[in-house]
Design goal:
Two copies of one chain form a homodimer. With 481 residues, chain A is α+β, with helices and mostly antiparallel strands. The first copy, chain A, has three domains: 119 residues, no CATH class; 164 residues, Oxidoreductase, molybdopterin-binding domain (Sulfite Oxidase, Chain A, domain 2), CATH 3.90.420.10; 120 residues, Immunoglobulin-like, CATH 2.60.40. Helix content of chain A is 20%, strand content 28%. Chain A contains ten helices and 23 strands. Chain A has a five-stranded mixed β-sheet. In chain A, strands 8, 9, 12, 13 and 14 form a five-stranded antiparallel β-sheet that branches. A five-stranded mixed β-sheet of chain A has the order 17-23-22-19-20, with no helix packed on it. In chain A, strand 19 and strand 20 form a beta hairpin. The longest helix of chain A has 24 residues. Chain A is globular. Chains A and B meet through strand 19 of A and strand 19 of B. Chains A, B: Its cofactor is Mo-molybdopterin. Chains A, B: GO terms for molecular function: heme binding; molybdenum ion binding; molybdopterin cofactor binding; sulfite oxidase activity. Chains A, B: Keywords: Metal-binding, Molybdenum, Oxidoreductase. Chains A, B: This is Sulfite oxidase.
Chain lengths: 481, 481
């Protein structure tokens, strides 16, 4: 690789790097520019109130040369765990420096501390991870260490004793609230709500979980500020995490309509399944929107602003063809068996999975197919967990399958508005595959013991004490006599 | 048809008929048994409070021999208008007699008086009809004479001066309300809401329409009764029309959950598009449920009952695999061109249609395909009517189509919860095809003027002054020289 071209290029690359360093240095002292916003809020830089600070970070990010992104859409995804390291996000944090410099390391330390050791780490930083399939539907309520995480930035480490958030914008009396304020039951009635969270990204099928939150309704907080004024119709939520997009920095920021808040479906939650929130889930106080995509729930909340129109930030509008995604469509998945599994059965394959719908709708009917979607069997209601607003239903079903060899198992669900799922991924309507709810399909290798020849072969294997190993390995005794 | 068998059967049939007449006569005097319930309510028999009356009607209906139903699922549907006469429903009304005897004739007279002469009469009695496709999306608000009608029984003819309905069941103070009570603006704030109505049955694609209702919120009426008591969670609505099912008679009766009423989404409406309600639409007072299927809206309301659990009547539960349908799934349709049309175009076929979703959700994205669903084109937002809660969006789009001959145009829609439509009817989940929202597909014959040969042929036809008639008729001059 040391041809003449490389030799010629070297001085130029070196020159570019020197120039980068000079350009970055010219922006100023990063430790002073990008400081911690509040005492006791490690890793929190406030961007939204400081256009100059945003401009400085932008200058740094555009001066530096970063590696191009690897291609994973058309090539194989690594089988490592973490699957992807998040190289760019780490580099951006280090480039901006200041309070952001230590965040990637701190965040990974928190993952190792707070999450289950068997988690599938899809992205190391910002952390995205989900539990392995065998844990997904194992319990009605997902234990905190196994709940999926979809973070958009690093984890701020906030001291709860100095925690507060501000409620401002179009409210009569803007003010701040500490945790003690919110926990004062004489002022704010405490509520407990159970719901599912799902991300809007196309993950594996374990990115779902059921949580019981304890907290208060945001509606009461707005009331404590004297209510909305001047035609406010939306609430904008600000998270203390830093988000990067197109060489710009920003705090994580989304909005929901007032009607959602008014219906008491937006919570400020300090309890998750009977425990304090883990830091990775937004400690000390996340804002939780029931029945909307997880991306509308904001962790490490530091500000709520009442506004007239939905927020136009990238994550809410621009990445999805200008459609403001709030509720999730109906969806479902097969958790067992798993794809490429060899399934030995007696004419019926035991299937387990979940079904969910957004906006407070619930699954009414689940169907399974063992032939790619030609014949369908309905899961009897008694094989499904209870209907409940905001939550999924799990199912178990013995799916008839007569044939042997590769079969495709598909599941689909109807919710109570009778919406159901498109059969295949071709209905995806945006390049990022956001909120693509087509039927979950898995390929399994069917070995049907009710077939005499199969039965004989399996008996032979058992007699010879040979495990039914990978089907691609030739058996060690003659298969015909 | 006068073979030996017929001759032999005749005395038996005659004997059966005689027996029928005797059995019916034994039940009693039908004019006394099935009388008008209230003065000024022509055609209203109250069944729900009189088990004996129901039993008497059942006895009559089971004593008599009715013709078997004709087979329309596997044979051609008549091309008459009315398409189907509703022979059985008429026979049942005549058999029960009393106040019901005149209803089929009275109802048809009202159809002719109140509905547009171009209506497509799908069923003469009980009346089901929809406007022809060319009218469906012509106006933002559907004119009353063109609005589709899905009646479940005959039309009671009610004098508004004696009209009242009762609110009872689990409310603190049960009472009755006259129209004057409801129209008293000092007691009940008047509301105006615009929404779409759609039936839950699989009709042609014209069974949708947009209405502006004027009336009051049911919530205020419940408040005027001192509120709900004893754990009431649902509201049951009684209509003055008579419904028949499995030889039983009943009033039309459904329920909706209290949460829907509480959100001010259930109206008592006396105005429809600036006019009084037509009798066929529930005059003087129907109950309208915003964003639910039309079948939950009850015409000729005579009673509301607060109850603990959803009603278990046939129309709400038993006809749909025990799934309680309330909201509609996302759906869409092509109103122009129409199926089997020959479309002459310049490489793009002008398509018009509508898209809708239930529960207050709205269409976000509409796509069209001219190749049966392989390639899809997105309708630009500026080619769609405004987003509005509860209502449809109409669209117009020039759909690229290069090929000639039979092509299949398909449309599909995503709503704001990103639900979309299954591609074909195979996803139907109940035998009656209730709330089947698969993509609308039409076959048209494409004649593409951008193709030189086609252009030449069309020019020849024009020069020879020969109309471009049915494509199956041979042209009268040599097509080759």
């Amino acid at each position: 690789m040391s041809g003449p071209e490389t030799k010629e290029m070297a001085p130029q690359v070196f020159g570019k790097l020197t120039k980068d360093i000079e350009a970055i240095a010219a922006v100023g002292d990063r430790d002073k520019l990008f400081t911690r916003e509040r005492k006791g809020w490690v890793g929190f830089v406030e961007w939204e109130n400081y256009p100059d600070k945003k401009a400085a970070a932008h200058k740094i990010l555009t001066s530096q040369t970063f590696l191009p992104n690897p291609e994973f859409q058309l090539g194989p995804i690594p089988i490592t765990n973490p699957v992807l390291p998040g190289t760019h996000w780490k580099m951006w944090h280090h480039a901006v420096g200041g309070e952001l410099a230590k965040i990637p390391d701190d965040s990974w330390d928190l993952v190792l501390k707070e999450k289950h050791s068997d988690m599938l780490h899809l992205l190391q930083f910002p952390y995205n991870g989900e539990p392995p399939k065998r844990f997904v539907t194992a319990k009605e309520i997902t234990p905190n260490p196994l709940h999926f995480v979809r973070n958009h930035g690093g984890i701020p480490i906030i001291d709860k004793d100095v925690y507060s958030f501000t409620m401002d914008g179009l409210v009569k009396e803007p003010r701040s609230f500490t945790l003690d304020d919110l926990m004062d039951e004489s002022k704010f009635p405490r509520v407990e709500k159970t719901g599912d969270e799902v991300p809007q990204a196309p993950w594996a099928e374990g990115a779902i979980g059921t949580i019981t939150y304890v907290g208060i309704s945001l509606k009461k907080v707005i009331k404590a500020c004297g209510g909305l004024v001047d035609g406010a119709k939306h609430l904008e939520f600000y998270g203390a995490d830093t988000y990067f997009k197109d060489d710009e920095v920003m705090n994580y920021l989304v909005s929901v309509p007032w009607s959602k808040v008014k219906a008491n479906e937006v919570l400020l939650a300090w309890g998750m399944n009977g425990e304090a929130l883990p830091r990775i889930h937004g400690y000390p106080l996340p804002l939780v929107v029931m029945g909307y995509i997880g991306a509308r729930s904001v962790k490490w909340l530091y500000r709520i602003k009442a506004i007239k129109n939905p927020t136009r930030v990238f994550v809410q509008s621009k990445m999805t063809d200008d459609i403001q995604i709030q509720e999730m469509p109906v969806s479902s998945a097969i958790m067992s068996p798993w794809t490429k599994q060899v399934v030995i059965h007696n004419g019926k394959i035991r299937c387990k999975g979940w079904a969910y719908s957004g906006g407070g709708r619930w699954p009414e009917r689940v169907e399974l197919s063992a032939d790619g979607g030609f014949n369908w069997y309905t899961v009897p209601p008694e094989n499904m967990s209870k209907k409940r607003k905001w939550t999924w239903r799990t199912y178990e079903f013995d799916l008839p399958c007569d044939v042997e060899g590769w079969v495709e198992i598909v599941c689909r669900c109807w919710d109570n508005a009778l919406n159901n799922q498109p059969p295949d991924i071709r209905t995806a309507w945006n390049w990022g595959l956001h909120v693509t709810s087509s039927c979950h399909r898995i390929s399994v290798y069917s070995v049907n013991k009710t077939k005499p020849l199969t039965k004989t072969r399996l008996d032979e294997l058992e007699k010879a004490d040979i495990p039914f190993g990978p089907i691609t390995v030739p058996v060690q005794f003659p298969s015909q006599t």
